[in-house]
Amino acid sequence: MPDHAANWPTTHVKSGWILALLGIAATTAAAVYLLNRLLGAPVTETNPHHALRVMTWNIGKLYIRGDSRAADSDLRYIAAVIRSQNPHVVALQEIRDEAQLAQLVAALGPGWRGRVPEDRWDRRAALVVRLHAHFHPIATSTGRTVQAAVIELPEGAAFAVVSVHLDAFDAKRRLVQAEEIVAGAQRLAADDVLIAGDFNIDPSVAARGSIDQDLYRFMTRHFVDSGFHAGATTFVHWRLDYVFYRSPRVKKASARVLRDRRINIMDHDPLVVELGF
Hints:
Elements: H1 3-6, H2 8-39, E1 51-58, H3 75-85, E2 89-95, H4 98-108, E3 113-115, E4 124-129, E5 133-139, E6 145-152, E7 158-165, H5 171-188, E8 193-198, H6 211-222, E9 224-225, E10 241-246, E11 252-257, E12 271-276
Parallel strand pairs: 1-2, 7-8
Antiparallel strand pairs: 1-12, 2-4, 3-4, 5-6, 6-7, 8-10, 9-10, 11-12
Helix pairs in contact: 3-4, 5-6
């Protein structure tokens, strides 16, 4: 038998291994590409001496069978999206309870901690931070309790930050909640206040003279609507999620909505705001 025929089995095996390795490499590259496209390049770290980066995200899902709370199976993905943006503070809505928040904080990793208040509603607003903070719940007369914290910036300044989720079904209740939450936040820090979350209003589609338009005018009399030009935050193209702030320290603000981050049947996009001092 000719020599080249005698070497055929070895050559065939080597070729098979090479093809297998190329297939694995191609699969890995495709997975990395898809993950990078999904999460985007990590945002450059911001120094809280000069800027405060805030994210608000309703991580619940479409209201089906009476439940819209965040799914445990989505928590690692949610943590990856949060880490990709390097926020200092995250306001989250539709958290189920303390146990679920603890899972998310563990997925975020060292340096993160959070708090979610107990109230009579089962879709709660939580606050997660990686700066020094003192947590304070703010109760309202409607039974809704929201989570606030006084964030200590490195230069000694204090910022009151509140994560809110206003009533989804009753406009009058939303307005009462907003008024009482603002009053509670101002008691924590009169000058430097930031209120972020799902307000369940879009003044651009609300009827003229409606309670929801009154609510928006109330908020903008006291605060700057930092995401005014950022666009819709839900799958129905409504802007329901806001970061309102008031601070003499803030010299500029930028906001953007993160598109294509919803998975399963989530219905909100994350909103990221950076405040420059």
